[in-house]
Amino acid sequence: MVATLALIIGLSTLVFTSILFYLGTFDILTTAMLVVSFNIVQWLIAPYLVGAIYRVREMKQDENPKLHQIVSDLSQKSGITKPKLMLAQIPLPNAFAYGSPLSGNRVAVTQGLLSNLNEGEVEAVLGHELGHLKHRDVQVMMVISFLPALCYYIGYSLMLSGMFGGNQNSKNNNGNGAIIGIAFIAFSWVLNLFTLQVSRLREYYADRHSVSVVDSGADKLSTGLAKIVKATARTSRTQAQQQQQTKNFSGFKSLFIADPSTANDDAASVYVFENNQKLVDDILTKRITFGDKLIEALSTHPNIVKRLRALQELKNGAIA
Q1: pTM, full prediction
Q2: Active-site entry in 121, 123, 129, 296
Q3: Hey, which of 86, 138, 213, 243 has its CA 20 to 30 A from 32?
Q4: Which pLDDT does position 17 carry in this prediction?
């Protein structure tokens, strides 16, 4: 985690410094300030956007007192203030933690999650989400995601300026600016890969937290994740419906406990089994192919096989 963060921040600083030294233009600084301001505003209002997109409402205490008690107990074990418990009125089985200084911390479960998982598995999923809040993952990912966005918009501005701006006397400089802009955009894609790596690492840390605060957490979370992947893949009846549904629900997929956009690929490992433990055992025996590694590199969440193996290591005490 620290190494990846150092790479992102270090490379970004190096490239920014080099470009600013070479060009010395105020426009780049203006663009940077606009991108920073946009990201801060987005962070502040994101909980309200999430609420609108996923039809989230607050779950009252008397609506599900047992679930509220679970969140209270896990929050106490986690050493954090109990977040607001929310219900996302969507069929996709998932859960997510989010918040900002304006809204406070929130943890949401979907109707699909409560329908497909038993109480112990829901508890383990909530332990995972509270881990995100304890580790301040929302804030960490906001900062990290800002750097690739900044690179992209600066590169885009340089490219347009180089292609259409200036006069004949500055033609060569404009051409150089366009080339640098294209390089900047390419660099933003590289940073995005590192950002995705940080996102995957934070999922492992949240899994680890769940195991530490939930009794038999490794087993409960393992079966819960397997059932989430399987249920997500079969939520829609046709492939076209699923593609549209996945597109609709993937806007903030980094918040989810499982990535809905890779559900079909992950579900290939779990589709034929009905028994929960056999479901998990079969996943653990799967061989991870090059295609699986490539899909994982472009995903916000770890490959389901690697994730369950990590949980088994935690269960067996292989990870301190």
Answers
A1: 0.79
A2: 129
A3: 138
A4: 58
